[in-house]
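Entry: SAM-dependent methyltransferase
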Amino acid sequence: MKNLLNSLEEHLALSPVGVAVELPDGARLGRADADVRLRLADRMAVVALAMGEIGNVGAAIVEGRVALEGSMRQLMTAAAALLRLDPARDVQMGWWQRVLARARSMAAHTLAGDAQNIEFHYDLSDDFYALWLDPRRVYSCAYYQGADMTLAQAQEAKLDHICKKLMLRPGERFLDVGAGWGGLLLWAAEHYGVDATGITLSHNQHAHVQRLIDERGLSGRVRMQLLDYRELQTPQPFDKIASVGMFEHVGRTQMGRYFGTVHRLLRPGGLLLNHGITAGGLDNDGLGAGMGDFIERYIFPGGELLHVSVALHEMAASGLEMVDTENLRPHYARTLWAWSDALEARQDEALAILVAQHGQERGERALRAYRLYLAGCALAFERGWIALHQILATRPSGRGDDGSLKGAQSDYPFDRSYMYEGACAAAD
């Protein structure tokens, strides 16, 4: 333990943010004028901090075994200095670990299991999410098309960016897989005139979007279904499909089925926009240093990340052709900091909402978990431990208008200029 404490003190001295640590026996390490203060209640927390297992330290904070003073931005700066290994590359799996990981993934991603995982996260509290998301409650990476954009403007720019990439046209059949609180679904219907269908496993989100559809008089051409993507059947395929912030929940073992289902639902020649978080490392499905375990336990049970190369492989194996890929990693770092700052500014309101719905103990734990999750993910995107890729793909038709074999025909012009023509609707 003495060697660990000496090592910890050395790392504290290297932190660009002053950190003070109070040990269980009352001894103190670090700077007296620190911006970040941690009071550790047990030996396990001391070991986790000394070993740079910042995810496990986060768990101790959530469980009340470590008391924290200081801002989330300062804490994340200090956390990065305490790491011993790159969280994106310290998870090396041998063949046996791969077998176990595959077995866990298969067990987790059943119809019932995925429904429970989605309910755990997305049905926590609509009012809680509304405190720190934009007014449309778009719970995915924004697109800061202009440097001075607000979060709300950047989210509208993202919605429009997706619609433009998909070349949405009035009357087209559009599917939003994992439609959330309906931001993209309604934007596409109201700004591009599509016939729109959304699916979700969240009861809260389903009810919220259904209310918006009714209030806006869109029930004739917009619908929201409480449904797993594997169960969606349609007599007529969709012209365009978007999946935003959803394939992170699919699981590695279900990825072939996921893209195969999209292929089945998409008409020949149609387009898919898959927008999702991807792993920074080639050989891991989450973050090391205890960060992946933290997210699995407190935020997204069942979540698995794939490197973009794996996602592209699975997509190609399902008969979809990638035509454009864009990495929005820096945009997600800025988005998450905007969410984090908004939650920090409204902690009292957030706690009151969570306590009213879940009781004092669970409410306090949930707030501590989300504070760490939002700021920790912002740090992870900043450092490149994880990324965000928009992958545009097509289902090649293989035939021309006259029915003759034409090879990989699609609606895509193989020219990016159409994505950026004219002013974004969000900037009008």
